[in-house]
Design goal:
The structure holds two protein chains of two kinds. Chain A is α/β, with parallel strands linked by helices. Helices cover 36% and strands 18% of the residues of chain A. Chain A has helices at 22-37, 61-69, 85-98, 118-126, 141-156, 160-174, 188-192, 221-224, 256-269, 286-295, 304-309, 326-330, 334-349; strands spanning 4-11, 47-50, 76-79, 104-111, 196-198, 201-202, 212-220, 232-241, 278-281, 363-370, 375-383. Chain A has a nine-stranded mixed sheet with strand order 3-2-4-7-1-8-11-10-9, sandwiched between helices. Chain A has a two-stranded antiparallel sheet with strand order 5-6. Chain B is mainly β. Helices cover 5% and strands 37% of the residues of chain B. Chain B has one helix at residues 18-24, and strands at residues 28-33, 39-40, 55-60, 63-72, 85-92, 97-102, 116-123, 132-137, 144-145. In chain B, the strands form two sheets. In chain B, strands 4-5-6-8-7 form a five-stranded mixed beta barrel. In chain B, strands 2-1-3 form a three-stranded antiparallel sheet, covered by helices on one side. The longest helix of chain B has 7 residues, at 18-24. The chains are: A alpha/beta, B mainly beta. At the A-B interface, helix 4, helix 5 and strand 5 of A face strand 4, strand 5 and strand 6 of B.
């Protein structure tokens, strides 16, 4: 597989974007990425859109985005694997360029979730499990991760406060990210006073629905080497799946898809977990980040609670994680999230992350989970 | 009819429709591949091991241990009048797993991961959108009409 580089990045503001349509959100990120890459849009020979179509009133999103970007008649298509749709789009473009079919592609993760009323969103999210055997009992998206949290707490003694320390960290960094939905720090006490959602989760254990978009411009090695700006290489690109139903998982303390995807990605990139200087992991709920520490090998299985308690995932710790605020604080426009993670790691590797910059970051990782680990994409990125 | 099963059913059409009829008679059934013998709960019509589409039902006794649970406070559409409710995932002694509500034989304060439970078919005859399902009960609890 030929090497593929990221030559441009763009990121719009995440939040309740009642000021913009989804194609307008896509354009914000695309324009920034084109300016960043310093390329002529005429050289983009295709786009891949990561998004989850059920949330939009517009049918067949790639067409409307492509038209709005002014990229007709170049090809476009959509990738969908729930909350990992953005990373699936990057992988698809990586394959397209690596195969030689394309030279330079724009990958756009974009999502408007707030076009729908809350009861409609709850109903859609509730179908993330197996509808035949689980949804009939009123399962919800937070409830599934809550089952993992209860199991993890029982098996490893993970504490309620350790879960919330993840939220405290991510809000701390989100307060330093101008693109984040919540730019406010929180305390354990405040989190413990919030409304219950699904035991043990309260409001502050959960990320928020949001609107937003992010974009990366990918190019072949030949083009990337001539790029005007810095290049970040996609050196480890892996994805894996696990059963849709939690009833067919080996246990409820980790995500086998994340273990498998990271194993493959590390091998492809020729690195191990200790080489990762900065990581973006899927923290849709507090337990998800703790399981990610373990699934990705940043600490031993069962030691995730201790890892956050010792601040190992802060800047200065052994592996800084989600120093842009994560989904928890940045917001989770599901199709945009994976691309947003890649943009943040690219920014870190380029040394452009401002007050949340991890010193000497040369190798970074993204971990983007779809649903409750039914899909997982892991990327290892390296700076030029 | 499979549409009798559960609440706010999303797909009444399935090749394992008879599961709900058996449940109505008080029997908890798993599927068994007629070709290779692989058993499955939840039941499946098609075997992912040998690819056979021939299956039969085999009865499970419903003895189980609790793997995890959560009390849901924020409900999805269709469950607004039921909230809050507690769901548990159990490992069946005969194999496989299921997810269900806790029944009245178990006090909320007694719920502990690892506890023994009995899966019991339940019938509602008066409620429009739910006819049969199963609940998690104390060991020794038997099938009853609610």
């Amino acid at each position: 597989m030929a090497r593929v580089g990221i030559i441009g990045i763009g990121h719009g503001e995440f939040g309740r974007r009642s000021d913009a349509t989804v194609q307008e959100l896509a354009f914000e990120a695309y324009r920034e990425a084109i300016h960043d890459a310093q390329v002529d849009p005429a050289d983009i020979d295709g786009t891949v859109i990561g998004s989850v179509p059920e949330y939009h009133k517009q049918r067949s999103l790639p067409g409307v985005v492509q038209e709005y970007l002014g990229l007709n008649p170049k090809p476009t298509w959509l990738t969908e694997v729930a909350c990992a749709s953005g990373s699936a789009a990057i992988r698809t473009a990586w394959m397209g360029i690596g195969s030689g079919a394309h030279k330079m592609m724009a990958v756009i993760g974009c999502q408007k979730m707030t076009e729908l009323a809350t009861p409609e969103i709850l109903a859609l999210m509730g179908r993330v499990g197996e509808v035949q055997w689980e949804s009939v009992f009123g399962t919800t998206f937070p409830a599934y991760y809550a089952l993992f949290a209860q199991s993890h707490m029982h098996e490893f003694g993970t504490k309620r406060e350790q879960l919330l320390q993840v939220a405290v960290k991510n809000h701390y960094y989100g307060a330093r990210n101008p693109n984040a939905l919540f730019q406010k720090e929180i305390t354990i006490e405040k989190a413990l006073a919030s409304d219950p959602v699904s035991d043990p989760f309260q409001v502050y254990d959960c990320c928020a629905n949001a609107d937003g978009a992010a974009c990366v411009i990918l190019a072949s090695e030949e083009i990337a080497k001539k790029a005007k700006g810095p290049v970040v290489w996609l050196d480890g690109m892996a994805c894996s799946t696990a059963s849709m139903s939690v009833l067919r998982r080996p246990n409820l303390t980790g995500l086998p898809s994340a273990e498998e995807a990271s194993r493959i990605a590390y091998e492809m990139a020729g690195v191990g977990p200790k080489d990762i200087k900065v990581a973006e992991v899927h923290d849709c709920f507090t337990i998800a980040e703790i399981m990610a520490y373990e699934d990705l090998g940043f600490c031993e299985r069962g030691a995730g609670g201790k890892f956050i308690e010792e601040k190992q995932s802060y800047i200065g710790g052994s592996t800084p994680v989600n120093v842009d605020g994560g989904l928890k604080s940045k917001g989770h426009p599901i199709g945009a999230t994976g691309v947003s993670m890649t943009v943040e790691i690219a920014k870190q590797l380029r040394g452009e992350a401002g007050e949340r910059q991890v010193p000497d970051a040369d190798v970074g990782l993204t971990h983007n989970v779809g649903g409750i680990g039914q899909y997982c994409f892991v990327q290892v990125l390296r700076r030029d | 009819m499979f549409k009798w099963f559960g609440k706010v059913n999303f797909s009444p059409y399935t090749k394992v429709t008879d599961f709900a009829d058996h449940l109505k008679d008080g029997h908890l059934m798993a599927s068994k591949c007629k070709q290779c013998g692989q058993e499955s709960f939840p039941p499946k019509a098609d075997c992912s091991k040998c690819l056979s589409g021939e299956f039969e039902f085999t009865e499970y006794d419903g003895q189980a241990t609790l793997l995890s649970f959560t009390k849901i406070h924020a409900a999805p559409t269709g469950f607004e009048d039921t909230v809050p409710y507690t769901v548990g995932v159990v490992d069946l002694k005969d194999g496989g797993r299921l997810l269900a509500w806790f029944g009245e034989s178990i006090a909320e304060s007694d719920i502990k991961i690892g506890m023994d439970l009995q899966v019991v078919p339940q019938i509602f005859e008066e409620i429009k959108d739910i006819k049969v399902y199963y609940s998690l009960e104390k060991p020794g609890t038997t099938w009853s009409k609610v």
